[in-house]
């Protein structure tokens, strides 16, 4: 079974669960995925703030493959996949955004580092520009 949590930037430019989902409805395994997504997104936003880059849209999803067909207490994560979808207003910002995502994923997000001790962590990165 694969669990997936997605977060986006809300109107206050803060991470929030997608589709107005309620954090109180998440099970403990989903909360783990949410924690990794929020930590990773906050780390990326901090790096971008230092580089004076704003995103027009940002969605970060964390998927976790479980060892059991349903969520039970004995379920373990076999691997994680983090999917980054970012939109920036300027073409020149694409490289900065991509680098910020890579730095957060590979080095600065402590939860992603910790999850690597549990199971392999893969990533997919998509950075597009809205500039015409």
Name the CATH class: Alpha Beta
The CATH topology corresponds to GMP Synthetase, Chain A, domain 3
Number of helices: 3
Q: How can the largest sheet be summarized?
A: 5 strands, mixed
Strand-residue proportion: 25-35%
How many β-strand runs?
5
Radius of gyration: 15 Å
Main sheet: which strands, in order across? Answer: 2-1-3-4-5
Oligomer: single chain
| CATH homologous group name | K homology (KH) domain
Mean pLDDT: 95
H and E order: EEHEEHHE
Low-confidence segments, given as residue ranges, are: none
What is the number of independent domains?
A: 1
Report the helical percentage. Answer: 25-40%
Polypeptide structure, described:
By secondary structure, the protein is α+β, with helices and mostly antiparallel strands. The protein has a single domain (2-129), classed as GMP Synthetase, Chain A, domain 3. The chain has three helices and five strands; from the N terminus they run E-E-H-E-E-H-H-E. It has helices at residues 28-50, 94-108, 110-118, and strands spanning 2-9, 15-17, 57-66, 77-88, 121-129. The termini are far apart.
């Amino acid at each position: 079974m694969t669990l997936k949590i997605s977060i986006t930037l809300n109107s206050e430019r803060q991470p929030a669960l997608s589709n107005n989902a309620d954090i109180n409805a998440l099970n403990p395994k989903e909360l783990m995925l949410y924690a990794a997504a929020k930590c990773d997104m906050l780390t990326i936003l901090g790096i971008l703030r230092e580089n004076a880059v704003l995103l027009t849209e940002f969605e970060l999803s964390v998927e976790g493959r479980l060892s059991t067909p349903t969520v039970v207490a004995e379920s373990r994560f076999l691997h994680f996949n983090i999917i980054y979808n970012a939109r920036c207003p300027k073409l020149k910002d694409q490289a900065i955004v991509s680098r910020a995502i890579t730095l957060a994923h590979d080095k600065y997000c402590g939860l992603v580092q910790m999850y690597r001790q549990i199971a392999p962590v893969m990533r997919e990165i998509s950075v597009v520009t809205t500039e015409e």
